[in-house]
Design a protein that fits this description.
single chain; binds magnesium ion; alpha/beta; 23% strand; Glutamyl-tRNA Synthetase, domain 2; 3 domains; Rossmann fold; seven-stranded mixed beta sheet; Ribosomal Protein L25, Chain P; disordered C terminus; 561 residues; binds adenosine-5'-triphosphate
Length: 561
């Protein structure tokens, strides 16, 4: 696959300086460290593209490391989905797939080392007492009464913690740093806690589990990582990251923090995404409305469009929120060049062309993609009875309405100019069909010899030839621009968009679409880009997901509403 050379950013500047100074012998080794407690989302894609992208550009390596220290939340399903998603994004970790749980023995030995150095102790305070001792932002913490236990006593207690002698929550192992540190993270943080839970990889071998801060830096160190890139929330944890590695005297990667991705109308938090799945608000982690990689994949996004988006937004040191439109533009730009164009009618209104012979069928030539001459052309059947989009006709049209009106003329794309002669209504007053005439001299949609012009061109399908299929239209899951902005005491779900999914069943499609295969993408003229759903489509029975509209209609809808 081809990648362009990326513009500089502050992380590249740091790496360039490290290489120039001969640090790590010029090596660049990064890692992507997901916790397997959910599916990856578009924020993770930013981190994947960054870490694997740096390794690629500096001819270095990037590891995939599952940060699986928390036995209760992790599942094999998540591990599998993460591998699939990283691979789909176009990245390869070769044989470097690691698990923090592989390091449980090493971590335990390192904890023993800290105890022997007098830098760690077993603390018997209850979680509540520990919290009270911790102090606040303005007040220093208080030392634990157990802080001065002897090395022998600590070794004995820690070993017995490991043997399962004590109850969960009764004791922890803590680093002995500084209860008065202005950085609360440094106030004797917990290193190990008792958890009598089975682990998805180590089974019941352990009943004590290491904490994130202790595990992460040592895992990075063991793997020879040079640049450990994480999100800004970990800035306060950096002194602790360094403290452990300095105390243990082992290889010290450089932690660099960058701003996490936030997107408008989107929540990027596994906890909340899990809630949407559990409460069946969506059909699963790969629901096409989900901001997960698997959701975008099923919606019809391409890996290249997601990579292009991640390149475009870049990396910065301050948090901001990116407009969803940027992500949508990225897939629009790509599909504009690659997706064949077809015609489909979502909300059909029948048109009878009264001066077109009954039974006559013409094969009109339709260009597959004006942006790509190599895409060729196809035949489109034209007949006396057609369907157009209901909203392309108005009886009481506003001045700038350039589509069909009573007595007005419009071009049917690749068809003819037609003129509306008569509006037929049903008993309830709803428009049932239009009677139109066509100008035979405008075949193919071309201007007639008299040079007459029309302002509007609309799409259509032939009634006798079209076929019916289900089409799914999506809008963001959350109406609020910042879905996390909820009134005090209210659940985040109050911001859910009740109309995030609209099923059009059936839509009327041009006959060529009958052979559409799962995974194919099309532009439905004037309606957007669509993807044949790989899950719900059957042979000869495609189901279409709208990937994105042709323009940014959502913001407009929002302003109206
Ligand atoms: P969440 O907050 O969504 O549950 P997390 O940070 O707990 O995510 P991890 O599995 O720990 O998820 O993340 C793996 C990597 O992806 C980490 O390095 C993390 O910093 C990065 N990451 C997570 N969310 C984002 C985001 N929104 N933007 C950029 N990077 C992210
Ligand atoms: Mg996490």
């Amino acid at each position: 696959m081809e990648f362009e050379k990326k513009p500089s950013n502050f992380i590249r500047d740091i790496i360039d300086a490290d290489i120039a100074s001969g640090k790590n012998k010029g090596r660049v080794h990064t890692r992507f460290p997901p916790e397997p407690n959910g599916y990856l989302h578009i924020g993770h894609a930013k981190s994947v593209c960054l870490n694997f992208g740096l390794a690629r550009d500096y001819k270095g390596l990037c590891n995939l490391r599952f940060d699986d220290t928390n036995p209760e939340k992790e599942e094999v399903e998540y591990v599998d989905s993460i591998r699939e998603d990283v691979r789909w994004l176009g990245f390869d970790w070769e044989d470097r797939e690691y698990y923090a749980s592989d390091y449980f023995d090493a971590l335990f030995q390192h904890a023993l080392t800290l105890i022997k150095q007098g830098k760690a102790y077993v603390c018997d305070l209850s979680p509540e007492e520990q919290r009270q001792h911790r102090g606040t932002f303005n007040e220093p913490g208080k030392n634990s009464p157990d802080r001065d236990r002897t090395v022998e006593e600590n070794l004995d207690l820690f070993e017995r913690m490991r043997q399962g002698e004590f109850e969960e929550g009764s004791r922890v192992l803590r680093a002995k740093i500084d209860m008065a540190s202005p950085n609360i993270t440094m106030r004797d943080p917990t290193i190990y806690r008792i958890k009598k839970a089975s682990h998805h990889r180590t089974g019941d071998a352990w009943c004590i589990y290491p904490m994130y801060d202790f595990t992460h830096c040592i895992s990075d160190s063991i793997e020879g990582i040079t640049h450990s890139i994480c999100t800004l929330e970990f800035e306060n944890n950096r002194p602790l990251y360094d403290w452990f590695l300095i105390a243990l005297g082992i290889h010290r990667p450089r932690q660099i923090e960058f701003a996490r991705l936030n997107l408008t109308h989107t929540l990027l938090s596994k906890r909340i995404l899990l809630k949407l799945v559990r409460q069946k608000i969506v059909s699963g982690w790969n629901d096409p409305r989900m901001p997960t990689i698997s959701g975008f994949r099923r919606r019809g996004y391409t890996p290249s469009s997601i990579r292009a988006f991640c390149d475009k937004i870049g990396v910065a040191k301050f948090n901001s929120t990116i407009d969803r439109v940027l992500l949508e533009n990225s897939i629009r730009e790509e599909l504009n060049k690659t997706a064949p164009r077809v015609m489909a009618v979502l909300d059909p209104l029948k048109v009878v062309i009264t001066n077109y012979p009954e039974g006559k069928i013409e094969e009109m030539e339709a260009v597959n993609n004006p942006e790509d001459p190599a895409a060729g052309a196809r035949k489109l059947p034209f007949s006396r009875e057609l369907y157009i989009e209901r909203e392309d006709f108005r009886e009481d049209a506003p001045p700038k309405f350039f589509r069909l009106v009573p007595g007005g003329e419009v071009r049917l794309r690749y068809g003819y100019f037609i003129k509306c002669e008569k509006v037929i209504k049903d008993a309830s007053g709803r428009i049932a069909e239009l009677h139109c005439t066509h100008d035979p001299e405008t075949r193919g949609g071309n201007h007639p010899p008299d040079g007459r012009k029309v302002k509007g061109t609309i799409h259509w399908v032939s009634a006798g030839h079209m076929f019916r299929a289900e089409v799914r239209l999506y809008d963001p899951l959350f109406t609020a621009k910042d879905p996390a902005d909820v009134p005090e005491g209210k659940d985040i779900l109050v911001n859910l968009n009740p109309k995030s999914l609209e099923v059009v069943s059936p839509a009327f499609l041009e006959p060529s679409l009958k052979d559409a295969k799962p995974g194919e993408r099309f532009q439905f003229e004037r309606l957007g880009y669509f993807f044949v759903d790989p899950v719900d489509s059957g042979p000869g029975r495609p189901v279409f997901n709208r990937i994105v509209t042709l323009r940014d209609t959502w913001e407009k809808i929002e302003k109206k509403g």
